Amino acid sequence: MNFIKTTEQESKYKDLDKMELNNLLTNINQEDKSVPHAVEKAIPQIEALVKVIVDKLKEGGRLFYIGAGTSGRLGIVDASECPPTFGVPHDLVIGLIAGGDTAIRKAVEFAEDSTNQGWKDLVNHQISHKDVVIGIAASGTTPYVVNALKTCNQNNVVTGCITCNTDSPLVINSKYPITVTVGPEFITGSSRMKAGTAQKLVLNMISTSTMILLGKIKGNKMVDMQLSNTKLIERGIKMLVSELNVDINTAKALLDTYGNVRTAIEKHKQDE
Description:
alpha/beta
């Protein structure tokens, strides 16, 4: 099936190499402003996917992101931020990238062109029907991602996707597709720009709303966050001072004792 890759269409800006710096920055910013509006149109699709993710995670499943290049890196970033932010196990949300960990920092030539490695990478993580796999590809044509989702469908694994091209092979092979049409890039074909921004915004929405629905936030606070640095410990102390109406020393003592904001709140209230 032929379709138009809007992410590959000619930039509406000419002669970038002759443009003044202020004009370059202003025009990039102007294009970026259109991204949230494009994401807004996809909210019904995002909602449908989040609902099934929450159901699967409640049943003991996991969430996988799979992509190549910028898309793969964005998935890994989102997955890696879930444990420290929400206190979930490191294997609950997993990011996979074509070419493996080496590709996080350095492009691995032709890795995204493999038609079977995506599924192999999922099998290495014991993928099952309890899990959800989200393919991320701005173009919607990346073989590593598209074929991984095809095989997931054949094995009764729930599939979703985040792409920026309507009616792409990735959309066709995804049960819960999310398409954010951002149009041509400032630099022709440079989908790390608007398309990458759109993917990051959608990933934020998916993981954040999922974790809230799983009970990992109290009010608007990260009560399950990992206390892995001074900043987060200080944030935890402030949460306890505010929530329990105690002084700083008491809050510090509670956090030292229980090592977790949620537990400290619950234990203190039990002891009152």
